[in-house]
From TrEMBL:
Annotated Gene3D superfamilies: NAD(P)-binding Rossmann-like Domain
Protein name (Swiss-Prot/TrEMBL): NAD(P)-binding domain-containing protein
Amino acid sequence: MKVARAFYVACRCAGPTLRDHDQVLAVLKRHEDVQWVVVRPGRLVEGEAKGLLKESDSPGATLTYEDMAKYNVDLITSDQNNHKFIYPAYAS
């Protein structure tokens, strides 16, 4: 029962945060003159880098902080990712 309760609390608390993120994304989409990229990683964990990240079709991948940091730097230094919404995952 404790697991179910913890899951319910986590989902209930995440709802307002996700709605806030969706509202920010809606504002960004209305401003074509602003360069932006939204990255929604899954779970971030400590540990050594595991490799190259790529754009994924679905959320939820567990990534290391080190890999996510490198991926973010690569994203913001490339014009190819402007106005994109990205779920990162490890390349196969």
